[in-house]
Amino acid sequence: MLLHVVLSFAVIIVVFLVLPLIVGQTEHKVMAHMQSRLGPMYAGGFHGWAQLIADGVKFAQKEDVIPAAADRRVFMIAPGVALVPYLVVLVVIPFDRDFVAVDLDLGLFFVLAVMGVGVLGAIMAGWASANKYSVLGGMRAAAQLMSYELPLVLAASSVAMAAGTLSIPGIVEAWQWWWLPWQAVGGVVFFVAGLAELRRPPFDMPIAESEIIMGPMTEYTGMRFALFMLAEYAGIVVLSFLTAVLFLGGWHGPFLPGWLWTLLKVFALAFVVIWLRVTYPRLREDQLQKLAWVVLVPLALGQLALTGVVKVLL
Q1: Which of 31, 101, 127, 128 has the most other CB atoms within 10 Å of its CB?
Q2: For the segment 256-268, what is each residue's pLDDT rounded down to a tens digit?
Q3: Helix or strand or coil: residue 120?
């Protein structure tokens, strides 16, 4: 039992350190092809394999600067607050039927609670930087969290109601292929709301380089900035994992091992995240709020009602 726990946590650490880097490398390549910006294809020779290494060396060489007027203690811990929650979430996500580090009875509730903590890193960074652009970015991040948390929770509640459990492995175990059309609206709402909470394009209003420089991260340099970037890619991995296990059946699939099906679904969803960044322009703040309250919340409530009706009839 102890060996199983140790191995599970070791795999989770490896996944947390490796998969976000793979997603970051993939984003370089996909955007290079889609936008005909082929610079990332040359670093290191074949297909630019060393681009990610070059980025890491660049961040490591940069000077670590803290503004004189900043709240130094909060400024220094903000990147960790943004990053660590995604590592904690991976502990309760099942990779396969027999591979989950901790199976909590309230696993879904735990995940939704912990994911909300990650946004606090951006808010802390914005407030502690003593920069008006950073504060504005932090306030925008807080507004997005409040707006998109509701449709995210409602969509997750729908699939939990369908499965009759809040245990994430239990939800995957109860999943049937006909849930794809039944829970499709909830899946789309969950994925879109998750993108907004991650502040990924087209929901990157808290960063908005053309307006507020880099939002909460404006004053960050070197490895602290790199930790924020790692948190962004770790968030993509976690969102893709959650969408895969809640709405796409996780390890369910023919012929291939269950863990491989899970990873294939995760990478397919991560590709969609990158694709959306390249395809859609940034929303205005009023469009951002309208999408949440006028579109996603009613859709999530409708999905919740439909799930309830089907459960009663069955």
Answers
A1: 128
A2: 888 899 999 999 9
A3: helix
